[in-house]
Amino acid sequence: MTTWSCMNLQDSASPIMEQLIFFHDHTLMIVTMILVSVLYFMTSMTINKNVNRYMLEGQTIELIWTIAPAVILVFITTPSLRLLYLMDEIHNPTMTIKTIGHQWYWSYEYSDFIKVEFDSYMTPYEEDNKKMFRLLETDNHVTLPMNSFIRIIVTAADVLHSWTIPSLGIKADATPGRLNQSSFMINRPGLLYGQCSEICGANHSFMPIV
């Protein structure tokens, strides 16, 4: 999970999140190259005192700065679209879990089993317990298998919510009267933390997911 002074994304716990981190770094590199180039051109034009009357118009340079951004956009959109389709793909799931957003806690149902359902409330913070994360601990954790495709069905009972686990690269909107589905695969063991990412009321920030 994210700690103080952590400037990067959380460590990935799924293949999709690994790809998202790669895409982030890829795009950041392109943006950095553009920034450095523009700063260099601006600085050189400011410092340079030479005047050339043939520089009033230049068909070649105009052609270059029209085509270059289009080529750069292709390098950004190609991996982006690939990732979007990968994230939307629902493989043959090993198991299905249904999560329902309430004000302000989550309910879970293991659809593949009979009568396996529970509510997950935030645990009040105890200052004596140094191992406890404030506003992130819950009384009931969701237990899921590793290296298995898991389908999650998300809905809400009252207002808009959003079931989000950053290290899994998953963010599914919970809308009343609507079922949204997503899938992921956990590729390492551990505790994964998340919170509701929708402004859903007074206790919006107190809907942790573990």
UniProtKB/TrEMBL annotation:
One term of GO molecular function: cytochrome-c oxidase activity
Pfam families given in the database record: COX2 (PF00116), COX2_TM (PF02790)
Protein name stated in the entry: Cytochrome c oxidase subunit 2
Subcellular location: Mitochondrion inner membrane
InterPro entries according to UniProt: CcO_II, CcO_II-like_C, CcO_II_C, Copper_CuA, Cupredoxin, Cyt_c_oxidase_su2_TM_dom, Cyt_c_oxidase_su2_TM_sf
Cofactor section: Cu cation
Keyword check for Electron transport: yes
Catalysed reaction equations from the record: 4 Fe(II)-[cytochrome c] + O2 + 8 H(+)(in) = 4 Fe(III)-[cytochrome c] + 2 H2O + 4 H(+)(out)
Residues covered by the Cytochrome oxidase subunit II transmembrane region profile domain: 1-91
GO cellular component: mitochondrial inner membrane
Role noted for this protein: Component of the cytochrome c oxidase, the last enzyme in the mitochondrial electron transport chain which drives oxidative phosphorylation. The respiratory chain contains 3 multisubunit complexes succinate dehydrogenase (complex II, CII), ubiquinol-cytochrome c oxidoreductase (cytochrome b-c1 complex, complex III, CIII) and cytochrome c oxidase (complex IV, CIV), that cooperate to transfer electrons derived from NADH and succinate to molecular oxygen, creating an electrochemical gradient over the inner membrane that drives transmembrane transport and the ATP synthase.
Residue span(s) of domain Cytochrome oxidase subunit II copper A binding: 92-210
Signal peptide start-end: none
Similarity comment: Belongs to the cytochrome c oxidase subunit 2 family.
Transmembrane stretches, start-end: 20-42, 63-85
Keywords, ordered alphabetically: Copper, Electron transport, Magnesium, Membrane, Metal-binding, Mitochondrion, Mitochondrion inner membrane, Respiratory chain, Translocase, Transmembrane, Transmembrane helix, Transport
Subunit field text: Component of the cytochrome c oxidase (complex IV, CIV), a multisubunit enzyme composed of a catalytic core of 3 subunits and several supernumerary subunits. The complex exists as a monomer or a dimer and forms supercomplexes (SCs) in the inner mitochondrial membrane with ubiquinol-cytochrome c oxidoreductase (cytochrome b-c1 complex, complex III, CIII).
Cofactor descriptive note: Binds a copper A center.
Membrane topology note: Multi-pass membrane protein
A single BP term in Gene Ontology: ATP synthesis coupled electron transport
